[in-house]
Amino acid sequence: MKVRQMPSSVLGVGLMGLLACGAEAPVAADGGPALRVWLDEVGSGAGILVVQAELDQGLDGLDVPRPQSERLSFELAGPPAMELLGERSVITWRWKLSGQQGSHEIAALELALGEGDDATTLRSAPLWVDLGVEPPRPGELADIVEPEPVIPIPWTLLMIGAGLGGLFFGGIWLAFRATSRGEPPELPPEPPDVAALQRWEAIRRDPTLDDMARAHALSQIFRTYVEAVLTFPATAWTTSEILERLRDMAHLPTGNVPRARRLLRATDRVKYAEARPGQDLLEELDADLRAFVGSTRPHSWNGEER
Description:
This protein is of the alpha+beta class. The chain contains seven helices and eleven strands. β6 and β7 form a beta hairpin. α3 runs antiparallel to α4, α4 crosses α6 and α5 runs antiparallel to α6.
């Protein structure tokens, strides 16, 4: 079965394989093509395997990456979904899997790109599936109910906030001084979507921050962006309150509630369960943040809108 590039974007799927089943979704460090796999809707004897390829636009005629496992059967659940994010194409296949209860291994998937001397192959990580049993591996992130204890803000984030505040008030002072001299005032602040992605990119590239600090900062950036664009106090609400409000927004683009759930739950586990995030998890959450921001750029999302 082949998939060809489509003219418009459709439902995007987020990236939470690490939390769902221990999958490690490889992402190209240089931003090039990548192949990811994760599980969704896993039950006692069945579930959904999601396979997602991130490619340069213009690539078409791709073979469907077909899963292989000794004790599992797979059935393609409908046609692939195409999503355009900037200059990238994201293609998502959903496979229905079924089998007996127990732990199963899905072999690494491969996707061939190009022909001849330009040919290359994307390869995912192998995946473990636990149907109806507890995972045998220790140390996985356990699901938690709403966190009740409030952990003090780390010093790293406090310093980042103080620095941003200093930049803000410094900008006001410079604008006032320029106006008093008859010079044109500075340009207005950047839109919230631009500010959110620039702040996150700066934090990702800061060598003085570890992955734990980056996860804390990602949670704050996402809540601040939601509060600015969707006009409710997300920075003061709990994860459950935010998700309930997003579900009530009839005109919020499809797929953003699952993205928000993955971002908030993952960062909650890091903040309150003291789970150690890995680089692969941060890359997956980065993709969720960019997809959410890209589809909710400043607009009105009230339910009464026509």
